[in-house]
Design brief:
This protein is of the alpha+beta class and 424 residues long. The protein has one domain: Cytochrome p450, CATH 1.10.630.10. The relative contact order is 0.18.
């Protein structure tokens, strides 16, 4: 545990030297890390029924939304997935694109030429406003808000270098106290949102309305706890992961002017200064490649975990029930067996031929299998819209460390502020 807590990345570098499947223990838990896509595929797809998601319940867990779709299992999860899936079809997401465009344009107008900004804070503010308006018809007007504070506290508590990540929530460490306080504030806020909607005569055709009117396969509606926890889940997931992907995209582009120039050329050819439509996005191939490559080098979720419900076999090795399978996404996505010059920012690698030849689960920024991210399509459309709009109006001058230290907590976050000067 000492090596993992000190440096999770070095920990996996060290483990991989022992082979592609490595077993170890942390406290009373048996772990198994895999370093090849075929084993990741076996765990996430082929044998997915043999595993549940793992949230360190033995260490106190991260149960901020226990009835949300990320945390549920079995029949409850299947019922929830069936209920939520219609909200993430391409046709349904097309209804949100105008909000993505409008809010990206509004943010650009808020920036003065020459202004110095905290990039992650600005991208988080943007993505949170988009998810709040499109999903819940809710306006977020402040950068410092309870959703952002809760996300920060959740990541702090999930950081393996933090002692609190190994302790129950009731232990009164400063980290736990912050997490419990902000989690309670967020739950209260979401409860008020639900109450206001249910007592209002206006019912926008949005995600919240769908939840309130949804009926499961057994004919019963979702419980209040499920609705509340779904809202919390999508507030946090819809903000944190996408804003980080955007943050690292601009960080990389600011250091590779030749890539930025190629991106600008595509936007001029396809958009000509206009905002993108859903049809335009299909032609923005290089923009798509830039987003994919940024998430390859900086996967928003750097680690995936699954817990074996019964004894399992992986690569010819037997593991007992309760073993936690660890899939270090950041290692697999920078494996030189599958990615030439793996540490280089090279959007050009993302050709149809390359993707066809890439092994399953060699690239999994959204996970894979039945528990893959439900909002993947939403996120990719949002990324391409925001990148194309901002890039057509703004250049960023990097003022901070070009290679910031990152921490692998719940998401892959920079340890320090990434600051940029806005040039219009």
């Amino acid at each position: 545990m000492h090596h993992l807590a000190r440096d999770p990345f070095a920990f996996h570098d060290r483990l991989e030297k022992y082979g592609q499947i490595v077993e170890y223990r942390i406290g009373n838990l048996n772990f198994c890390s895999v370093y090849h896509p075929k084993y990741a595929k076996q765990i996430l797809i082929t044998d997915s029924d043999d595993y549940t998601k793992f949230f360190a319940d033995q260490f106190g867990g991260q149960d901020i939304s226990p009835s949300g779709i990320i945390f549920t299992e079995g029949e409850q999860w299947r019922r929830q997935r069936q209920t939520l899936q219609p909200m993430f079809t391409r046709d349904r997401i097309s209804e949100y694109t105008s909000i993505m465009v409008e809010y990206a344009q509004n943010l650009i107008r808020e920036w003065d030429d020459g202004a110095v900004i905290s990039l992650r804070e600005e991208m988080s503010y943007l993505t949170l406003r988009i998810i709040s308006k499109s999903m819940f018809d809710l306006e977020i007007s402040e950068r410092d808000n309870v959703i952002g504070r809760t996300t920060d506290a959740l990541n702090e508590r999930s950081d393996p270098r933090n002692l609190s990540s190994y302790l129950p929530r009731w232990v009164p460490t400063p980290t736990n106290l912050r997490f419990n306080r902000t989690a309670s504030e967020l739950q209260e806020k979401v409860d008020r949102i639900i109450e206001e909607r249910t007592t209002s005569s206006e019912r926008p055709n949005d995600f919240l309305d769908h939840l309130l009117s949804a009926a499961g396969t057994d004919g019963e509606g979702l419980s209040h706890e499920e609705i509340r926890d779904h809202l919390i889940t999508f507030f946090i997931a819809g903000d944190d992961t996408t804003s980080l992907a955007l943050t690292y995209t601009w960080l990389l582009l600011s250091q590779h002017p030749e890539k930025r120039e190629k991106l600008d050329e595509e936007h001029e050819a396809v958009l000509g200064g206009d905002s993108p439509t859903l049809t335009d996005l299909q032609e923005l191939e290089y923009t798509t490649a830039v987003a994919k490559e940024a998430m390859r080098l900086y996967p928003p979720a750097p680690q995936l975990y699954r817990e074996a419900v019964d004894p399992v076999e992986i690569g010819g090795y037997q593991f007992p029930a309760g073993t936690v399978a660890s899939i270090p996404v950041h290692k697999i996505q920078t494996d030189r067996r599958f990615f030439a010059d793996p540490d280089t920012f090279e959007p050009e690698r993302w050709t149809d031929e390359f993707e066809t030849e890439l092994p399953d689960c060699a690239y999994i920024p959204f996970g894979a299998g039945p528990r893959a991210c439900l909002g993947k399509r939403f996120a990719m459309i949002e990324l391409k819209i925001i990148i194309s709009i901002i890039a057509q109006h703004v250049d960023f001058e990097l003022l901070s460390d070009p290679d910031p230290e990152v921490r692998a907590s719940l998401t892959l976050r920079p340890n320090e502020e990434i600051t940029m000067r806005v040039r219009k």
